[in-house]
Here is the input.
Amino acid sequence: MNTKFLLFLSLCFLVSACSGGANKNSGLTPMPPSKTDPTDSNLIGEINKYLASRSAPSNSQYDYVRYDLNNDGLREGLVLFKTPYSYWCGWAGCSLVIFNADDNRFNFNTEMTRVRGPIYIHQKATKGYKDIILGLSGTNMSNKNVVMQYDGKKYPANPMTEPELTDLLTPSVSKGFFF
Here is the structure.
């Protein structure tokens, strides 16, 4: 046989052996599709849906930040409601709502009450989500920082029942928001 022909057949065999084809038993695992980080306008739309579901006042005002709480490359939305004070806030603080980021959308996760800024996102994680550090003040308890830990589904709603932070809050272990 012709040497070029043998070389061509060898090359065809090599390419077909390495391609894996459509064979389910080829041993190759396909890469998962990449997810898209939702935009701020997606978050604002979800906040508006949340406000409507609660029949909240139309003049509700809030601040928000985006931060990746679970290291999946998608930034969650943390929304701290401010006014009307009588609706969103009380003597111990205001409501903080967390929306989980998914592929180009947000899903409601948690509403925490009695929250005052600043809040800190700790580098420690519990069940895949970073711990959130809140300061408690303005209550009948002494001022302290508490750790809000993810339970596998959501964060706790009431910081007054959560454990006190024993670590030092430094820029190397936490990131602060809502000052």
Notes: The chain has one domain: 40-177. The beta strands are 61-67, 76-83, 89-90, 93-102, 105-115, 119-126, 129-136, 144-148, 174-177. Residues 172 and 178 are 18 Å apart (CA to CA).
